[in-house]
Amino acid sequence: MDAAFTEEQHEIRRTLRELLLKRCGPDSVKAAVRTPEGYDRELWGELAGRLGLPGLALPAAYGGVGCGPTELALACEETGRAVLPSPLIATAALAAPLILALGSARQRAGLLPALAGGELTGTLVVPGGQLATALALTGPNDGDWAGGGRAGGIQARPVDGGWRLYGEAGQVLAGHTAEVLVVAAHAGGFTRSRTLLFVVRAESAGKAAGGACEPGAGGAGVPGLLRTRQTVLDETRAQARLELREVPAELLGEGEGEGEAAGAESAVTAALAATGVVAAAALAAEAVGAADAALARTVAHVKEREQFGRPIGSFQAVQHRLADLYVRLQAARSAAYYAAWSAGAAAAGTAGPDGVGEPGAAALALAQALETLRAVAAEAVQLHGGIGFTWEHEAHLYFKRAACDELLLGPVHRLRARAAEEAGLFAGAGGGPAALASEAVDV
Predict the structure, then answer these.
(1) What is the Cα–Cα distance from 331 to 359, expressed in whole angstroms?
(2) ∠ CA(368), CA(369), CA(373), 5° rounding?
(3) Staple partner for 183: which of 1, 93, 125, 258, CB 3.0–4.6 Å?
(4) Whole-number pLDDT of residue 193
(5) CA–CA separation, 96 vs 110, rounded Å?
(6) For residues 131 and 50, what is the distance between their CA atoms, to the nearest angstrom?
(7) pLDDT, tens digit, 9 for 90 and up, residues 238-272
(8) CATH fourth-level superfamily of 122-262
(9) CA 416 to centroid of chain Cα atoms
(10) What pLDDT, in 10s, does the model give residues 34-73?
């Protein structure tokens, strides 16, 4: 592994940081999350058009920049530093990689250039809040997490050569605005039970001002699709609840109707797991960027705030606490970079004889980054004193991001258990860490 970044990678970081410093301060973030979309559309257009951010890891043949997971992680580190509200993760780290991996030539040509250029946004729809499971980050993704014939999931059935989806999903990232929905649904009933991925085109013209798309409203929306933005603690990470009532959908891939290839489900689980590796590296880098910004703001504050006639940053106890956070931050950054490099090597087929990256590296990096962000955000709130405990203070942007990301993609002990399981650390040891993690209790 070459730990030195190229000049192009440094340029991506510098350009993005300069733009976000000008356009994405704490006040701008708070104003953007209160819009119906939940983000600044003008800024997103500039990031997509000028920097090609959503297409950073997509091939040039589909309108992308032609870079890889490392460049995407570097970009996410800068967006995390600004706590940027945007559909970047949902589009570039979830929807686009799945379409690239499983989509037919027609689907790739029709969707990827628009996603890469920012004309469309996308997201992955997983029922039951099972995003981490679907991406194989907290356990194997070969189960019935998409429904399995039970209420609460999403069911798919063939109708007249196409498909219809019925069910619901919550905690869908950017789900109230995404025009391209990659939906994980259960198909085949009990006899041919399997999980497949489907594409639903949800035109933005069907959205109401409040962020909902009424079924068949004015013929502009998708018949049977209801999308409602959810109230969440971290407003910078917009989420939505989707209800699908016989929604027309297209199978992601070459197969149509009931005649898809016999190995379709194994291809889906493999693609989801590969996407999870890239997404985990990007999210880890984003958490590292947020922790870095929170720590920098805290250091600046303790240099100015005075107690007993001197800055509190001059007290040894405060210095020790900040030094410990700095060490943890650098370790998390190294882990995130390594996970991104490993994911890129796997994608390029240069990771090793088996063609895969380091087992468990992504889940472990994400666990360390989330834990570090949580620790830094907690110290930032405390060291800012009385003002730091108010919801309105900017320190809570990082605190809320830390809390909600772990709820969405964790918990941390399950991420670590999965990493240990993938690395084979406890092979043959009575159920392994996953069994122990299922009984663990967060303190």
Answers:
(1) 19
(2) 120
(3) 125
(4) 75
(5) 12
(6) 31
(7) 999 999 999 999 999 865 444 444 457 889 999 99
(8) Butyryl-CoA Dehydrogenase, subunit A, domain 2 (2.40.110.10)
(9) 18
(10) 999 999 999 999 999 989 999 999 999 999 999 999 999 9
